[in-house]
Amino acid sequence: MRRTMGHIFMALSGLVLALPIIVVAGASLNGGRTMLFPPEDPNFARFVEFFITETIWVRALRNSLIVAFGSATLAVLLAWPLAYLLWAKGSKASKMLAGLGSLPFALPPIVFGVGLGFMWAFMGSLGAIWVGIVSHATLFLALPLVTISIGLQSIDRAHLDAAATMGATEAVTFRTVILPQTLPYSISGFFFALVLSFNEFIVMFFVSASAYATVTLQIFNSLRNGYTPTMAVAAVLFITVSIAVFSAVARWGDLPRLMGADQSRN
């Protein structure tokens, strides 16, 4: 009985999660300009419009990709020395730096966005696309910091002792032992930051200053003209990217450990 109830609960949970996705995916197939469900005259014209023919959406998608890939790369590059210092030294200074690196992610996005907006305006850089990259890298720095730290903690100390016994320098040990064992965790942190940056709206709203639009900003701007099927195409893209990235992390990364599972119970 208990097992049956568990299956029913899981089925209902899956249905609740799937229904909005089904509605959005169906609405994206509307042939006209009105978002309806079930779709009228279903075809892929809105997908062609979003990815190829409509300049405003193509430009927004390009900006989103630039900001997402740039900020995720920068976040990993900033997180690595912080995580390594925290793991190797464990000093108060390294803990403080790691705490500061994680702080933006803990703040309400609107508070962080307003603060960044004032700072970039004061520096005369508000509205530059590199500002969006740096802002998102700072906001999502905590993600690769956590995943890389978990990867460093998972390294078997016996491997480090063996490398030291064989005369390996710190640089050789880092290149041949530490880096290969933490690579899946670095990639996982990169993709976590990339997905969240791709979907983020609030901070980008304050730092872009209407000088450019990402897909999320373009959806917001287009709401003045009402709901259109092209917005649903953007939503389908967000869902697809998220599912693809998290599936890849689950397949090739150590997802149970990243989710906090206790490996000692296996």
TrEMBL record:
Q: Where in the cell?
A: Cell inner membrane; Cell membrane
Keywords for this protein: Cell inner membrane, Cell membrane, Membrane, Transmembrane, Transmembrane helix, Transport
Main location, first listed in the record? membrane
User: What topology does the record note for this protein and the membrane?
Assistant: Multi-pass membrane protein
A Pfam family this protein belongs to? BPD_transp_1
Question: Is Repressor there in the keyword field?
Answer: no
> Which CDD domains does the entry link to?
TM_PBP2
Under InterPro entries, the record lists: MetI-like, MetI-like_sf
Residues annotated as domain ABC transmembrane type-1: 61-250
Gene Ontology annotations for the cellular component aspect, listed alphabetically? plasma membrane
Q: Which residues cross the membrane?
A: 65-87, 99-122, 128-152, 232-250
Q: Could you give a single Gene Ontology term from the biological process aspect?
A: transmembrane transport
Q: Which Gene3D superfamilies match?
A: MetI-like
Q: Which family does it belong to?
A: Belongs to the binding-protein-dependent transport system permease family.
Q: What is this protein called?
A: Putative 2-aminoethylphosphonate transport system permease protein PhnU
Gene name per UniProt: phnU
